[in-house]
Design a protein that fits this description.
Serine Threonine Protein Phosphatase 5, Tetratricopeptide repeat, single chain
């Protein structure tokens, strides 16, 4: 009989999550979390993710914060930062989302930072963040796209000039 790890059980749980109703999903994740010590960072993260999955961002946010404070492995840490930022944005705290993502790296973090910046009305900065992330995937045009993205926040746009003149 093959030995499975807790992470294997978590992966299997999430692979079957679409088949569970909300109560069963929360019960299942709590049973898995109970196999860990109280305050375990990974268990807190997985429980936060379950609330997030169910659209219960307000319940997920404190759990993400606790998981981050308790110390997550590198993969879960990156996921928790992005998921916390997304949850903050979804509850109307776009500024908090930008703050959480301030030092985050990677395309997912850039995408959610761009969304939050857009929500804050910082459209040129949002587009710059998104284009800069995209530039890394464009071998022929990456340098040009990066340069154009940088220009977005280094010079006023037509819409900003007309707003300032009004």
């Amino acid at each position: 009989m093959p030995v499975t790890t807790w992470d294997d059980d978590i992966a299997r749980f999430w692979a079957e999550a679409d088949e569970l109703d909300g109560d069963a999903l929360l019960e299942g994740i709590r049973e898995l979390a109970a196999q860990r010590l109280a305050g375990d960072a990974a268990a807190l993260f997985e429980e936060a993710s379950a609330h997030d999955y169910l659209g219960e961002e307000a319940r997920a946010i404190p759990l993400y914060r606790q998981a981050l404070a308790a110390g997550l492995d590198e993969v879960r840490h990156s996921q928790a930062v992005v998921q916390l930022a997304s949850s903050l944005r979804n509850v109307g705290d776009a500024a908090g989302s930008v703050e959480v993502l301030q030092d985050a790296e990677g395309e997912a973090a850039a995408a959610f930072r761009a969304l939050a910046l857009h929500d804050l009305g910082r459209h040129a900065e949002a587009l710059r963040v998104a284009l800069t992330a995209l530039a890394g995937t464009l071998p022929e045009y990456g340098r040009a796209v990066r340069a154009y993205a940088e220009e977005l926040t280094s010079r006023p746009t037509g819409s900003q000039e007309s707003t300032e003149e009004s």
